[in-house]
Write a structure and sequence with these properties.
Rossmann fold, binds fructose -6-phosphate, alpha/beta, 8-stranded antiparallel beta sheet
């Protein structure tokens, strides 16, 4: 989704801005642009398409400017084209802004400004904000005041960065519901919506809070609220390094991230898994440990892949702890007036920590006085900051738009939470030790599956012609079927659906013929024989069966055209293994079809709009 970079310091700003935009490409976008203050004037370039198209437009032009702002846009108001791309200027052409988020009352503001004689070139809500800032600048002749007053008139969300030739040495940035991070270097500052645009220059950062604004010059920065009250800012250190946001020899970020999973699973457990005690230590949950002790019901809310993790979390927590769990899409939760009782706990799961629907669900739950926990990847993100307590998954930056390593890490954390809650209740130490040992063994088992990637590449070649896929699984592996189907459709644009295996006969079976590949997740578990019957039903209609089975299950070869083996583990942990071949299958099919794996069409990495 949209990305912001701004720079003020001793370097040539354009280099930092273009570099930053490239680092933000993974978020998904359809146009890019920048503004500099060059020889006292605003110079702007913007272009529909990729950052590389913007660079071509410059055709070797040189700019000496040391201050500028830049943007990658993911269209919300107005189609993706050069005019709607950011930055947007005010009517004087002396103020330039880039903006993430949505200005909900833009139509009213636009009308109001039009009546005063102001004009608009684009269809965007952002241009309304730039013109509004221009209007208040004419009144107050003070950029900071103009920005503050304009933002106070805005309904909706924003992360915004502003420069002006009126006050050419400063960047003003502000946030409400859309992240802004200030990177603090030596005599230089980088402001961005995402730490990956900053890490190359500095690790020291400060995160703006909602309704906070920062005024940055090359000599320092000052934060305050939009209402002009001073605030203090915490400096934090970014913990990942540059290699984490580079491809490191892999053809795509997605493949790199799939292969990182033995490490990321281990990182999720580090210092948390107490094998000898059969328990987990989750420091982030200590502030709410009493609430966890007394919890009557857990609601888990999330979107997309994180919602699939939540479904597995429901099975885990109910099985290990006997606590009733409900899972709900955050987009439904936020508008549905959910019932939250005194001893309920709400858990929000989000890789990015910025998903607008999940953030709104967190806020809704807090309004209802629930204790809200986060399972989040991005440190310092909005959801991490809004929740009462939580656990970071520590998967490192996930750049590929299709979520992979975050999913398995979310599952590890949900298992650790279940272990902790279970041990507070009836789960015996013996059972706990068994589970903990199996968790410990997961990285090596994932490694083993990854060594089999070539088999998946061959299967992908054979099946990439199919226009539809069905994914079926039961129990813990039903959500894995949903996840496998989501992965495939996201990056290869092949229609795929996931179902509980037994549901097939209630409808989807009508689709089965010799052209329909059906991926069964069928590990050796208590419902294995039931799944075999479902496979028979597909085979008897000449569907083409691909099975994910447990190592040693030779019998499966009689049932399935292709069998992909995963090592044996406890049923509750199979999703962490069974999803890996499905990630690889989707990846190789997308590559086979020549799709843009890391930046699939229409998708954004973090969905910061409703
Ligand atoms: C799927 C995918 C999306 C996200 C969803 C939630 O591969 O990436 O479905 O899972 O947009 O995002 P987060 O987890 O960042 O809240």
């Amino acid at each position: 989704m949209c990305g912001i970079v701004g720079y003020v310091g001793h370097r040539r700003a354009l280099n930092v801005l273009i570099n930053g935009l490239q680092r933000l490409e993974y978020r998904g976008y359809d146009s890019a642009g920048f503004s500099l203050i060059e020889n006292g004037k605003i110079v702007s370039y913007k272009k529909q398409g990729k950052v590389s198209d913007l660079v071509v437009l410059l055709n070797g032009l040189e700019f000496k400017s040391n201050i500028g702002i830049a943007h990658t846009r993911w269209a919300t108001h107005g189609e993706p084209n050069d005019i709607n791309a950011h930055p947007h200027l005010d009517n004087s052409g002396n103020i330039s802004i880039v903006h993430n988020g949505i200005i909900e009352n833009y139509a009213t503001l636009k009308l109001w400004l039009k009546e005063k004689g102001y004009f608009f070139k684009s269809e965007t809500d952002t241009e309304v904000l730039s013109v509004l800032i221009g209007y208040f600048y004419e009144k107050f002749k003070d950029l900071e005041k103009a920005v503050r007053i304009a933002l106070s008139k805005v309904k909706g969300t924003f992360g915004v960065a502003v420069i002006s030739s009126y006050e050419p040495n400063k960047i003003i940035a502000a946030r409400r519901g859309s992240p802004i991070i200030v990177g603090i270097g030596e005599d230089e500052y980088i402001v961005a919506s995402d730490a990956s645009a900053i890490i190359q220059y500095t690790r020291q950062v400060t995160y703006l809070s909602d309704n906070e604004l920062v005024i940055i010059t090359k000599d320092g920065y000052q934060t305050k609220t939009i209402d002009n009250l001073p605030t203090s800012s915490d400096i934090q250190v970014l913990e990942f390094d540059l290699s984490k946001i580079e491809k490191g020899g892999f053809e795509h970020f997605m493949l790199k991230e799939i292969f990182e999973q033995p490490q990321t699973i281990q990182d999720a457990c580090r210092g948390r898994l107490l094998v000898d005690e059969g328990n987990a230590r989750l420091g982030g949950l200590l502030p709410v440990i009493d609430k966890l002790q007394n919890v009557d019901r857990i609601l888990i809310t999330a979107c997309g892949t994180s919602w699939h993790a939540a479904l597995i979390g429901e099975y885990l927590i109910e099985n290990l702890c006997g606590i009733p769990v409900e899972v709900e899409y955050a987009s439904e939760f936020r508008y549905r007036n959910p019932i939250i009782r005194q001893n309920d706990i709400v858990i929000a799961i989000s890789q990015s920590g910025e998903t607008a629907d999940t953030l709104a669900a967190v806020q809704e739950a807090k309004r209802k006085k629930a204790t809200v926990l986060g399972i989040v990847n991005v440190v310092g993100s909005s959801i991490a900051r809004e929740t009462d307590a939580g656990v970071y998954i520590h998967a490192g930056p996930e750049i590929g738009v299709a979520s992979t390593k975050a999913f398995t890490s979310q599952l590890v954390i949900l298992t650790l939470i279940s272990l902790l809650l279970g041990r507070m209740r009836s789960l015996s130490q013996e059972e706990g030790i068994l589970i903990a040992n199996e968790i410990k063994a997961l990285p090596e088992k994932v490694n083993k599956i990854l060594q089999n990637a070539e088999q998946l590449r061959q299967i992908a070649k054979e099946f990439s012609y199919s226009r539809n896929f069905l994914y079926l699984g039961r129990g813990y592996n039903f959500p894995v079927a949903l996840e496998g189907a989501l992965k495939l459709k996201e990056i290869s644009y092949i229609h795929a659906e996931g179902y509980p295996s037994a549901e097939m006969k209630h409808g989807p079976i009508a689709l089965i013929d010799e052209n329909m590949p059906v991926v069964f997740i069928a590990p050796k578990d208590p419902i294995y024989n039931k799944v075999l019957s479902n496979i028979e039903e597909v085979r008897s209609r000449r569907g083409r069966v691909i099975s994910i089975a447990t190592e040693g299950d030779e019998n499966m070869k009689k049932y399935a055209e292709k069998v992909i083996y995963i090592p044996e583990t406890l049923p509750m942990l199979t999703p962490i293994l069974s999803v890996i071949p499905l990630q690889l299958l989707a990846y190789y099919i997308a590559v086979e079809l020549g799709c843009n794996v890391d930046q699939p069409r229409n998708l954004a990495k973090s969905v910061t709009v409703e």
